[in-house]
Amino acid sequence: MQTSLQPAGPARPSAAEANEAIRLLVETWADGEWPSEAYEFLLEEWAAASRAEMAAAQ
Asked: Which residue has the higher pLDDT, 28 or 10?
């Protein structure tokens, strides 16, 4: 019997999904303290997804 590996956590978003999340964060940000941790996290997700999509396209 063969088993397949299950991901340890939720799948990463696509580059387009991460980009949309960044856009939503920027558009809905109200005056106050900029959510830098959330922004940096989303940028990392976008970068990882972009690299993966470029590698898959080659």
From this structure: 28
- Integer angstrom CA distances of residue 9 from 1, 27, 31: 24, 28, 33
DSSP assignment of 38-56, as one string? HHHHHHHHHHHHHHHHHHH
Q: pLDDT tens-digit profile of 11-44? A: 778 999 999 999 999 988 887 888 999 999 999 9
> What count of other Cβ atoms lies within 10 Å of the Cβ of residue 45?
19
Residue 49 to residue 1: CA distance in whole angstroms: 33
Instruction: Summarize the confidence of residues 2-17 as an average pLDDT.
Output: 66
